[in-house]
Amino acid sequence: MQILETVVENGPFPTVRFVGEGGEAISVSLACDSALDDVQLIAKAKVLLLHAAAFDEDSCAADASMRSQPESGRAASYTLEYQDQGQVRELAGLSFPTPQAVLDECRRSAADLWQDALSRGEAPVGWAVRAKDASGAVVAIVDYEEVRASDGGHGTGVGEPTPSNF
Predict the structure, then answer these.
(1) Residue 79: its pLDDT value, please?
(2) Weakly modelled stretches of the chain, pLDDT under 50
(3) How far apart are CA 78 and CA 137, in angstroms?
(4) Which of 1, 135, 147 is nearest to 82 (CA)?
(5) Which DSSP state fits 74?
(6) pTM over 0.70
């Protein structure tokens, strides 16, 4: 589905609605602090959709297994930072089961930012998305240049960017 419009409805349980071609729409209701701005709510909704898209029976069993492990075996908490139109936005408190999952999310998010920029006729440079662990250390970063290179510079889709890792 090609997303044509994103609508944020604020309230006690904010809803982000992604409207696509032919009137198709996907709505994500968020149980979160209503103090988040629209950009943060949209980023959180995108993350939830990615988790929903990746959901399957095996992941459900893995989640149950992870919950039964001691604290050291639980998914770590991360903050993702997004750089778009000269502004940096943070989305904190995200859990990922592995460092590879963090990197994959950074890649997907960077690709989304790149496509959004192209739709506005822009070609941003510098870092697009970076992830920090609970201590504040940067654990993954994906640059716009890496996304552009993997994309062939045409905005036709993202292959496998080669992120810088710390």
Answers:
(1) 92
(2) 59, 61, 64-72, 155-166
(3) 10
(4) 147
(5) S
(6) no
